[in-house]
Amino acid sequence: MTSQKSQRLLLPDLLKGIAVVLMIQVHLTELFARPAFFDSVAGKVSLFLGGPAAAPVFMAVMGYFLAWKAVSSKNLFLRGIKLIGLGILLNIGLNFHLLINYFLGYYSSLDPLSYIFGVDILFLAGLSMLVMAGLQKVAGKHLLPWILALLIAAAAEPFLPLYEGKWPVIHYVQAFFWGKAYWSYFPLFPWLSYPLAGFLFYRLSKNIQISQWRTKTFLIIWFVLLAGIASSFAYGFRISINLPAYYHHQLLFVGWTMAFLAWWVLSWYFISSSFSNNWFFRYLQFCGRNVTVFYVIQWLLIGNIATAIYRSQSPLQWLMWLVIIVLASSLLTKGYLIARNKSFPKT
User: Fold this and answer.
1) Contact 64/202 with Cβ under 8 angstroms?
2) SS3 at position 149
3) CA torsion, points 251, 27, 322, 288, in degrees to nearest 10?
4) How far apart are CA 55 and CA 302, in angstroms?
5) Which candidate in 32, 120, 247, 258 could, as Cys together with 28 as Cys, close a disulfide (CB 3.0–4.6 Å)?
6) CA proximity to 126, closest of 84, 187, 189, 91
7) pTM over cut 0.90
């Protein structure tokens, strides 16, 4: 069994691995499954699992790692620009089949720019890094500016003005930051809250020496969080399965999601402490360590297949596609890593 210290380092990779698999299944529900399945109890459970335990986990873990690795402002800025560029390339790649059909005249009413500039999670990650690079320059190690930034990110969206003019470019630019555009899935407000929360958690955990806390203390926190989440679960579930409300949620749901994340992390900490050497956990950690590659590959597969079979698959077919996409993404990720290591061997 791994040591407690090693376990903590492996936990973020495990969380990311679980999150990317949950994101695959929700992408299949949104794009492959028949409307009857989408609207069923099973479909709603799928949407919930692909909600608070997926994108917020990615973002919070990203913020945690940025703090842990003490990434400089310059490197943060450069990483952010690269992720934004990768986001555009991924949007073109995953919608390639759809865009080809549009240019061939099959989808004349389609707005191609809403697919090319659809605000997915890579754009959010890139923009978040740009903001955090600026915060590091201004705030340094002072915690108060980071806390204020988190609160502003969580609460500001309802108060920000919506552009209703006729210049399309402003609509597309605004969608990256806030608003209700249907192609704005992860706008900076309120989603910036989660990487800031991960960053702050690392900083605070060092100040209060959380690594020295007893297991009993973590269990008490876990039960308190569980009680709070259970008592308000109907609210959290309702927002999570309503995609427009989920993508453009407000302060109360940010708070609920933060509590859910804390409970989720503690739950997997306890579970993985006993099963860290299990092959399935090692596989999930592999997915988490290579989450960007895995995420890009699964979207390239799902996005291009969806154009041909959009919302036509039965529940059994949905399950088969889940196995196929996860397996194919895993093999292609492994193949990419082998090819990259051969092309650029470590010295």
Assistant:
1) yes
2) helix
3) -50
4) 17
5) 32
6) 84
7) yes
